[in-house]
Amino acid sequence: MVPTSQVLGLAALLFCIGLAGVIVRRNLLIVMMSVELMLNAANLALVGFARVRGDLEGQGLAFLIVALAAAEAAVGLAIVVSVFRSRRTVYADEVTLLRR
């Protein structure tokens, strides 16, 4: 059995990698992937805490976050495709306004 400290350490590492991707990268697709990585790190921490407590509430919440992440990915990808069609770029620095 993996100790909870290692699970939380891995979750913190994944969250920091995702946060660095959001801060450093300019490509909107990579920023979206970094947000997904941060959500998965939160899921890992929730499941780790749920295992320590011995209940299923954390796992249920993690399932809800997975559904939220899927909806976020669908809406975010639609926005990125729309921005690319109108501006011909997916770099966050060049997209300052969402109107034409």
How would you characterize the overall build of this protein?
The protein is an all-alpha fold. The protein has one domain (4-87): Helix Hairpins (Orthogonal Bundle). It contains three helices and no strands.
TL;DR of this structure?
By secondary structure, this protein is an all-alpha fold. The chain has a single domain, classed as Helix Hairpins (Orthogonal Bundle).
List keywords for this structure.
Helix Hairpins, mainly alpha, 3 helices, 0% strand, 100 residues, single chain
Describe the secondary-structure layout.
Elements: H1 4-24, H2 28-53, H3 57-87
CATH topology: Helix Hairpins
> What is the strand tally?
0
Alpha-beta content class: mainly alpha
- Rough outline: elongated
Strand content: under 5%
* Beginning-to-end CA distance, first to last residue: 55 Å
CATH architecture classification:
Orthogonal Bundle
The helical percent reads over 70%
Biggest sheet statistics: none
How many domains make up the 3D coordinates?
1
